[in-house]
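ok so heres the complex, two chains, lmk if somethin looks off
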Amino acid sequence: MRNSRVRSALGLWRASHARSASDRRYAAYLGAMLSVAFVAPTARALWISASQPEVLRALAAPNAPLIGGLCAAGLWIAALLAGRLRGPALRPPLLTHVFARSEHSRVSAFGGSVVRAGAVVTAVTSVVSAGIGGLLGVQAALPFDSALAIAALGAGIGVCVGVIATVLWLAGQALPRLAGALAIGLTMLVGLTIALPASARFTPWGWTAALWNGAGIAVAGSSHAAPWPAPVALLCALTVVLVSSTPALFARLDSRVLEAQATRWGSSSLHASGMDFSSALAAYQGRPWAGRRVRAVRTSAQGRRGLALTRTFVIRDAVGAARAPGRLAAGALGITAASVLVTLASSAPQPGVGLGVLGAFGAVVAFAALGPFTDGVRHAAAVAADLPVYGVSDAHVLVLHSVFPVVAALLIAGITASASATLIGVAPLAPVLCSAAVAVCAVFARVGNALKGPLPVRLLTPIPTPEGDLSGAVRFLWSIDGIVLVALIGATMPLAAAAPAWCAAPCAALLAVGAARWRRRRTGAG
Amino acid sequence: MIVVRDAEVRERDATLLPATSFDAAAGEAVVVRGANGAGKSTLLRLLAGMRAPSSGTVRIDGRDVVSRDRRLRRSVAAMIGLPPLAPDLTVRDHVLLVATTWSASGRDAERLAGQVLDELGLHALATRFPHELSSGQTQLFGLALVLARPCGALVLDEPEQRLDADRLGLVVAAVNRRREAGAAVVVATHSDALADGLGGRILWLQGAA
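and the predicted structre for the whole thing:
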C-alpha cells in the first residue's frame, strides 16, 4: 500500500514532530484521568439512561427499525457532503502539498489517513449498533450469551454502515460535484421510502432496517424465521463493492482539493486549539455565489432618512443572505426546528428537567441556525472595531444590521410556534411568546459573540487549585459563553410566567456581557 | 487643517515614533517616507485616531483626534490596512452602501459610487464578491470604500501595495482629485512613482535609531 519513499517521508515528519518522553507520559496521564473522570461515567450514564423502560420500549417499537435505517441513510448522505469540505484523505498542509504534487500514488500517500479516519467512523457506528443490539437483548431479558450474540450482530451491521460511510466520505472528496448531486438523489430516495415503505427493501437503509427488525424477531423468540440472509448478503455485498471501488476514488483525488482541504483544516484546527471557535467554523462557511446581479443596496429618494437607511440595510442583509441559498435554507430550517423544540418545552403542563433540556437544546439550535442571518451583524462588529467606513455611528450600523435577523427570527419562530401549538392542541400564546423571546435572545447572543474579539490576555493567567490549573476551563467557558447563556435562557424561558427571575438572570447576563464587549470593542479585550 | 506638534509614541522602552511635527493645509499633500520601522504607520494611526500620542498634540480642524466625535468621523477618511469587507456583498454593493450612508439622497449616492468605480477602473469587477478578487484588485476595492465618501483629510498607508503601474496611476489621479477639491492628504509610501505623482511635501521619518 505504501512505498518506501513515502514511508521515509512520513517517518521524517513524525520524528520532527515527536513528543518528548515527559509529554508522552503527561498525555497518557491525561488520557487515563479523562477516561476515569469523564469517559467511563458518561458511558455508564448513557447506558443507564438507554436502559430505561421507555427507551427500551422505543427501541423495540414497530417503527424503530425504519428510523434506524433512515439514520444510516442520513449518515451516508452527511458523509458524501462532508467529503466535499473535509475528506478522509487529509494530512498536515505541508505533507499534503508534498505528496499531492509528487509522483507517488494517492493510495500510498493518503491511504493511511483514510484507514485511520474510517476506523474511527466504523468504531463509532459498530459501538452504537452493538449497544442497540445489547439493549434489545436486555429488553427481552435474554441470557447473557444470547444478548452478546445479538450485540455482535449489531456490531457487524455497524461495521458495514461505517465502512460504507467511509467510502462515501472519500467519494465526496474525490468527486465533489457528483457527490452533491448524489446526496440530493439519495435524499429524494429516502423521501420516497418514507412515503412508500414497501420500496425500502430495495435500498441499503431498508436492508439495515430489515436486520434490526430481524434482531427484534430473534430476541422476541418468535416462531417466524428472522429474515436474516438476504439483507445480510446484500449489505455485505454492497460494502465489498464499495471498498473495491476505493482505488479508483483515490486516483480521482485532485491535488488542489487535497491542498485546499488540508490548509483549511489546519487553519481551523489552529483557531479551535486557541478556543476561537467562531473563526474555526468561519473557514467552512459557504461562500455567496447566487444573485450577484441582483442589487443588494437599493437607494431610495423617498421617506425620512432614518427609515430609508433601515429599509436599505434590511434589503441589503436579506439579499446578502440569499446569495448563499443553501446556507440560508439550512438556517431557516434550523430556526424552525428550534421553535418546535421550544414550543414542546413550553406547552407542557408541568415543568421538568427533560423539558428544560429540550428548551436549552432548542435555544442552542436557534443560536447555531442564526449564522446566515447575522452576517451583517458580524460585519458591523468588525467595522466598529476598525476605522470608520460608514457615515453613521458604529452603534447605528449595528442596530441597522440587527433589524433583519430580529425580524426574520421573529417571523419564523412565531409562525412555527403558532402552527406547532395548534397541531399539538395547546393555546398558542405561551409557545409563541417563548419561541420569539428565545429567538431574539439568540440574536443578542450572536451580537455579543461578534463583538467578542480575541481571547483576553488576562484569561491566560494560571488559576492553580488542588485539582489542577482551572484557566483552561475558564478559557473554554469564555469561548462558548454565548451558547451557555442562550441554553440557560432556553431552559428557563418556559418558566418565565411562573418564575420570571430564573429566566431574567441569564437574559441580564447576556445583555451585560454584550454591553461590556461593546464598550471594549476597540481594545479587543472581549 | 492638520497640525502635528512634537507628537511622539512610546511603548514601554521602545520609541515607535520619535517627536514629529508638521502641518498640512486644505488642498495640500504631505508624503511620509522613511525606512521600515521609521514610524510612518504609527504617525498615520495618530491621524486616524487609532491611538493617542504619548506626548505632543495631533489636531485636525482644531480638534483633538483621539476623540471619535461625528465631526471628526466626517472629516477624516483613512485606510491603514484593508477596511472590513462583507463577504456577501459585491464590489458595487459595497461602494454604494458606503456612499448611501454619507450622501443626502439616493441619487447622490448612486452618482458618487459610479464615479469612484469609474476612477479606479472597477466597473468591470462590479458584480464580483470580495473572495473573487486578486490581491491588487482587493487593494483598489479597499481604496474605493475610503474614497466613496466626502472628507476634509485623507490619510492613506502605502496605497501602492500590490498595484501595477497602470493601477497606481489611477490611484494617484483619484487622490489628486480629492486634494484639488480641498482635502488635506497625508500618504505614507515606499513608492517613488506615487510620491512624484502626488507632488506634495516630503516628510522624512528617521526612526528612533
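quick notes: The interface with chain B takes residues 285, 287-289, 292-293, 295-297, 299-301, 308-309, 312, 316, 320-321, 323-324, 375-376, 379, 382-383, 386-393, 397 of chain A (CB under 8 Å). thats all i got rn
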